[in-house]
Amino acid sequence: MVFPRKRRPSNDALKRSSVAGRAHSCDRCRGRKTKCAGTFPDPCAACVDAKQPCIYSDSEKRVTVPERYLHNLQAQARKAVAAQSREPVANPNPNPNPPDNIAKDVDIVAFTGTDNWVAGRQGQYYYMGNSSSTYIANRLNPTTETLAWHMYPHYDDASWLRRTVVDGQLPQLPPYEFARHLYLAQHAYIGTIFSFLSEDDFNVRLKHVYSRLPILSDKDDCLIYCQVLLVFALGQMYSVNQWTGNDGPPGFAYFKHALKFLPDVHEDSSILFVEVLSYVGYYMQALNRRDAAYLYLGLALRMAVSLGLHQEVLDQNIGAFERERRRRVWWSTYSLERLLCVTSGHPISIQDDDIDVSLPSPTEGEHPRLPAILACYTRLSRILGRIGEEIYRRKQKSGTSLAASVQNIMNSLSDWYRQIPDELRLQPADWEKEVNREGVSLYLYYYQCINMTARPLLLYAVQRQTQRPTTARWEDGLPANMVSIIHAAIAAARSSTSILKDAAKFNLVATYGFIDGEQAFSAALLLVMVNIAFPYKEMDAVAMNTSLLVLQGMAGRGNKYIRACHSLLTKIRDTIKSRMVGPEGSGDRSNSLLQEQQPIVYPLPPDQSSQLSPTHLLTPGAQNRSRDSSRPVDLDDDVELWTEVLDSIGIDMDRHWIETALMAEESMAMESV
């Protein structure tokens, strides 16, 4: 007779039973590694006999709950505490004199780190880091709505998200000459700051596409067709520049067909493949598919690394033209990845220490202007990577290290400005006529780097100001260098707004351009924060209203995400509308300024007599009241202040924060009655 074999319990089952047994053991028996006969809450016999306390530390039942549920409970708790702090308390001996500062009795809720997560449509979560402007805007949000770019896709047809079988059929192609016009349209916006496809190469590939149908079994042939269709998509997006009533933004039809020819990433790598992946990632940003853009640009960067584009070629058989092509494709992919990562709050994919390739330089017979633009833009991308890593992502151990990082980055920005070739410098008179788009791109990028560097300092100053007497100057008590950097950031935001306003007159603002939208939103957000907490200043109030008009113009042309950004900032602006009334007659003056040409603030070259730093972004006549920000930071007396700035990087600025500013404003209004 054969008896069935007993099944041996698995290791996991033994572990579970062992853990379960230990969970009901008291601390004393567990420490002695003896069997505990007790049951919570009754003491065990061993502890009773030994006359020792019997403690069951792990007797509480542990329940696993979704993280979102925990976040909601924490948010409700913060709101409850805030509501209790605002309720009037009966005072048997009321003081007839009102307090000097109502805001002193209102605490700023500490950052809990739970607001970096945004729920998606399918229940998944998306992460937004502290360097994201969207994250900061949500902290300012006076409503219960959440701003997230993935909630505003720029398309109605979602069938393209699933790849279909390629049949080799092309969409209706534009006329040949108009196809060349589409190339020039996209080149004017992105071809000067990212070098993926030269005009000569495009003309060769265009003839190839118009001559026959693609060979689907040939990977390179499919890449050529994919790239040309992507150029059509980008060219149409920039030339039409507004929603035309189709199921997506201009060029969306070409983009969907281009994806059908995109090879799988496991196929052989090539520089052409890197170029195509970068184009796909860029257009994904225009669709507000930043998650997909992050993946495609990450693939492009890793493919470039696998091809060794991040290192100089040692093979002497490779000609100068091919070497330069490798450099430009690498730095273009690098800049795209840096822009998306830092502005979305993600870590960068490669450290600068791992890169050993020269910056773009002119080839034989080439005009030096184009490589100079690429080199200048690349240097800013390297600085932006430092901003993301050293200020927002690195866990600073002290305020001293943060101060040193901020100062070093501001010095690097100052050096960048001094090294701009004369032919790329813009003067105020240049904006009276149409300027080249690359000038708009360079200066907006420069100002954005200043804003992101100074943002933690500004957040700290804003939070600090809401807790002080309303009559106090926000500069009081702050080190001169910190004040200078904050002033530079405010001036940079005004400058960005002025450039965008003037560029819009010549249709040089990209409605669906991810970069333009991000930079416009970042500048508007900073100006709104300044007008919330700082005393009324007509120049800042006018700049804020102008920045909102710029966003409104982009929203009116069909950018759904910018429309949501504009709506949020408008709601925040409306909560402080009462404080937008300045001295006598200033309201009328502000309205008139909105109708006039707002003078642009430009970084001035260093003045040998006053040793001014160009990062001051001085206005005419401001030389006498400027400070020198190029001197080293004196940290002897300011370490504690810089340490407090660390907490402002992830500051919690929700409705309670706004109400604090409003209560301070009401206090000032009461005192003036």
From TrEMBL:
Entries under Pfam families matching the protein: Fungal_trans (PF04082), Zn_clus (PF00172)
Domain of life: Eukaryota
Ranges of biased composition (kind: Basic and acidic residues): 625-634
Gene Ontology biological process terms from the UniProt entry: DNA-templated transcription
Domain Zn(2)-C6 fungal-type: 25-56
Record InterPro entries: Fungal_SecMet_Regulators (IPR051127), XnlR_reg_dom (IPR007219), Zn2-C6_fun-type_DNA-bd_sf (IPR036864), Zn2Cys6_DnaBD (IPR001138)
Keywords tagged on the record: DNA-binding, Metal-binding, Nucleus, Transcription, Transcription regulation
Residue ranges of the region described as Disordered: 80-101, 603-634
Gene3D superfamilies: Zn(2)-C6 fungal-type DNA-binding domain
Alphabetized GO MF terms: DNA binding; DNA-binding transcription factor activity, RNA polymerase II-specific; zinc ion binding
PANTHER family from the UniProt entry: PROLINE UTILIZATION TRANS-ACTIVATOR, REGULATORY PROTEIN GAL4
Protein name from the UniProt record: Zn(2)-C6 fungal-type domain-containing protein
